[in-house]
């Protein structure tokens, strides 16, 4: 265990699946099991778009022989479109990872200061 | 640009479709590099004859050392398309705090479909183009609603 913990330089090495990461993985698996809620069988319905089908999307025609595109039904658009505005939650870093980052940042900083002269 | 023999130079301009004329901005930029601007204008207007006249069209001109040139015509700037869709003439002066217009996700999709035809973007997933268009809207002060 101590062998893996002392590897602050391990962050530079390619990830191996059997040491520190496996420890965090089991921790994550445990929390996941605790939080597990049954996934809904049907996809959550997205609220209706503000642009009704048939609305002419003015100003978006660039071709001489073309005409402005027309809005289609909500169902005809791909699902990912409605998720574009969702805020992506920032991944929280574990204490261990944060310490690693702080340590490597301070090393880099001191190297820079020393190399400056 | 470089005066060394054997180096092609790249020139990027935004020219109104069908309206390329030898005078600025096209004339001096090309003339400096030894290209006859009239030649370029004729070819450019010919290639953009399908577009609505006056649409700002970015073009990348590669000028060879022997003064011949090739050019690639791209789709109109995303910010311009968004301003057209939102019905505004100018973007916000302070994009973070000001909102000058709104577009919906369906507009974003339509803009992305236009951008997908760009030779530069043709291999990129439509979803990623949409994400990029949403970011451009934010930087122009245009709010995207559902």
Automatic annotation (TrEMBL), chain A:
Q: Where in the cell is it found?
A: Mitochondrion
Q: Which domain of life is it from?
A: Eukaryota
Biased composition annotated in UniProt, kind: Basic and acidic residues: 88-108
**UniProt keyword terms in alphabetical order:** Mitochondrion, Ribonucleoprotein, Ribosomal protein, Transit peptide
Q: Which Pfam families match?
A: Ribosomal_L37
One GO CC term on file: mitochondrial large ribosomal subunit
Which parts of this chain are annotated as the region Disordered?
21-50, 88-117
| InterPro entries documented for this protein | Ribosomal_mL54
* Keyword Ligase in record: no
Q: Which GO terms describe its molecular function?
A: structural constituent of ribosome
Family named by the database record: Belongs to the mitochondrion-specific ribosomal protein mL54 family.
Protein's recorded name: Large ribosomal subunit protein mL54
**Source organism per UniProt:** Coemansia guatemalensis
Q: What is the lineage of its organism?
A: Eukaryota, Fungi, Fungi incertae sedis, Zoopagomycota, Kickxellomycotina
From TrEMBL, chain B:
The keyword DNA repair is assigned to this record: no
- Is Ribonucleoprotein tagged as a keyword? yes
UniProt keywords (A-Z) are: Ribonucleoprotein, Ribosomal protein
Known CDD domains for this protein?
Answer: Ribosomal_L11
* Coiled-coil ranges from the UniProt annotation: none
Can you cite an annotated GO cellular component? Answer: mitochondrial large ribosomal subunit
SMART domains linked: RL11
The family assignment reads: Belongs to the universal ribosomal protein uL11 family.
Q: What is this protein called?
A: Large ribosomal subunit protein uL11m
Annotated organism of origin: Coemansia guatemalensis
Read off the lineage from the record.
Eukaryota, Fungi, Fungi incertae sedis, Zoopagomycota, Kickxellomycotina
């Amino acid at each position: 265990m101590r062998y893996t913990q002392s590897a602050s330089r391990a962050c530079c090495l390619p990830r191996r699946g059997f040491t520190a990461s496996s420890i965090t993985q089991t921790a994550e698996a445990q929390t996941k099991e605790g939080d597990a809620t049954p996934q809904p069988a049907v996809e959550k319905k997205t609220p209706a778009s503000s642009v009704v089908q048939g609305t002419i999307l003015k100003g978006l025609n660039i071709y001489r022989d073309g005409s402005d595109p027309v809005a289609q039904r909500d169902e005809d658009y791909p699902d990912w479109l409605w998720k574009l505005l969702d805020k992506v939650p920032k991944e929280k870093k574990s204490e261990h990872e944060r310490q690693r980052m702080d340590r490597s940042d301070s090393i880099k900083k001191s190297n820079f200061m020393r190399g400056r002269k | 640009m470089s005066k060394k023999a054997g180096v092609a130079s790249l020139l990027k301009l935004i020219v109104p479709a069908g309206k390329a004329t030898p005078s600025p901005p096209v004339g001096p930029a090309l003339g400096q590099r030894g290209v006859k601007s009239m030649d370029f204008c004729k070819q450019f207007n010919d290639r953009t004859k399908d577009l609505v006249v006056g649409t700002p069209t970015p073009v990348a001109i590669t000028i060879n050392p022997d003064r011949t040139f090739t050019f690639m015509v791209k789709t109109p700037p995303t910010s311009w398309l968004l301003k057209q869709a939102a019905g505004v003439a100018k973007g916000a002066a302070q994009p973070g705090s000001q909102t000058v217009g709104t577009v919906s996700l369906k507009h974003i999709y339509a803009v992305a479909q236009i951008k997908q035809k760009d030779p530069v973007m043709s291999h990129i997933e439509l979803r990623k183009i949409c994400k990029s268009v949403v970011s451009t809207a934010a930087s122009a002060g245009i709010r995207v609603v559902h």
